[in-house]
Specification:
By secondary structure, the chain is of the alpha+beta class. 38% of the residues lie in helices and 14% in strands. One of its GO terms (molecular function) is ATP binding.
C-alpha cells in the first residue's frame, strides 16, 4: 500500500467517499472531507501507470510550489503503481464548463458580463504564468477551470504532460486537439494560445465548443463560426443573449481576440504573453 503524502501541514488525512464530482479526460474527481473539517477534491488519475514513484513525486512537489492567484496547486498525493491520487482544495462553484452549460435548474448560476470578463482575465493570467514557468503545454478547457465562491477562476490539472502515457496523451489532453496537434501530432507553446482562444469564444458566445469533443460531433464549432462573423462584421450577433446588454463593445473585442488566438495559422496569432495582455487590456477598460 502506497503512502499518502500531504504537502500542507494544515491538512489532515481523509477517506475517499462515494461522491463523484466529475469525470474528465485525465480521471475522476471526488469530494472528500478531511478529519479537520476541510473539504478537498481528490482526482483519481488515469493514463499515468507507466510513471515511476520518484518522477511522480518530484513533479508533484514542483507543481505544489507554484504560487499564482489563478492556479490551484496540489496539496497532497498518493502513489501506487496501479493508482495515483492528487488532492487539491475544493472549489464550491464547480467548473466553468458546468456553469456555462451543465446547470439548467431555475436557481442556476448565471454569469453576467462583468463576471465573464473577470474570469477571462484570470484565465489568461493563469495560462500565461504556467506557460512561462513550466515551459510545457497547459492545454486548458473550461472543464479544467474551477470557480470559487467569488467566481474567481482557478486552473487545475495543469503540468501533467510529462506524466501521461505517451500513447494516451492525444486522447487525454486538449492541447493535442489544437490544429497542430490534429494535423502533425505535436504540441507547442502555440497550443496554449489556441486553448485560450477557444475558452474566450466559449465565454462570449455561451456555446459549447465542438472542439472539446474528440469526434467534433455535437456542440458548436465556435472557432469557424466566430471567424466567419468577424470577417463579415457580425460579431454582435454571436454574443450570448444572457449578457448581451452588458457586454457591449468589450464583448466584441474579446471575441476578436479569441478568433486571433484560435487561428489555424499559428504564425498569424499572438504569442501567449501578447494574448494575455490583450485580454487584460479589455478587462482594464471596464465592462461597458
Amino acid at each position: 500500500m502506497g503512502e499518502f503524502v500531504l504537502m500542507r501541514e494544515d491538512i489532515t488525512p481523509f477517506g475517499l467517499p462515494d461522491l463523484m464530482l466529475g469525470n474528465g479526460t485525465l480521471g475522476s474527481a471526488y469530494k472528500a472531507a478531511m478529519r479537520n473539517g476541510v473539504t478537498v477534491a481528490v482526482k483519481r488519475m488515469r493514463d499515468m501507470n507507466r510513471v515511476g514513484r520518484v518522477e511522480f513525486e518530484q513533479h508533484l512537489l514542483m507543481l505544489g510550489e507554484l504560487r499564482h492567484a489563478n492556479i490551484l496547486p496540489p496539496i497532497g498525493y498518493h502513489y501506487r503503481k496501479e493508482e495515483k491520487l492528487i488532492v487539491s482544495e475544493y472549489m464550491p462553484r464547480g467548473s466553468l464548463l458546468y456553469a456555462l452549460h451543465g446547470d439548467q435548474s431555475p436557481n442556476r448560476l448565471v454569469l453576467d458580463w462583468p463576471a465573464r470578463l473577470r474570469i477571462a482575465a484570470g484565465i489568461a493570467r493563469g495560462i500565461a504564468f504556467l506557460h512561462e514557468k513550466l515551459g510545457i503545454p497547459a492545454g486548458r478547457l473550461s472543464g479544467n477551470i474551477l470557480l470559487n465562491a467569488d467566481l474567481e477562476p482557478w486552473l487545475v490539472d495543469y503540468g501533467f504532460f510529462p506524466l501521461v502515457n505517451p500513447t494516451q496523451a492525444p486522447q487525454a489532453m486538449f492541447a493535442f486537439w489544437s490544429p497542430e496537434g490534429t494535423t502533425r501530432g505535436v504540441v507547442s507553446p502555440w497550443s496554449d494560445v489556441y486553448c485560450l482562444g477557444v475558452v474566450l469564444l466559449e465565454l462570449v458566445t455561451g456555446r459549447f465548443p465542438s472542439q472539446y469533443l474528440a469526434t467534433a460531433r455535437g456542440g458548436t464549432d465556435v472557432v469557424h463560426w466566430s471567424a466567419a462573423a468577424v470577417a463579415e462584421g457580425g460579431e454582435r450577433d454571436l454574443v450570448d443573449s444572457v449578457m448581451a446588454a452588458g457586454g457591449g463593445e468589450a464583448a466584441v473585442r474579446l471575441l476578436r481576440v479569441g478568433v486571433q488566438c484560435a487561428s489555424a495559422e499559428t504564425e498569424c496569432g499572438p504569442s501567449m504573453s501578447k494574448a494575455a495582455w490583450m485580454v487584460e487590456e479589455i478587462a482594464g477598460g471596464g465592462a461597458s
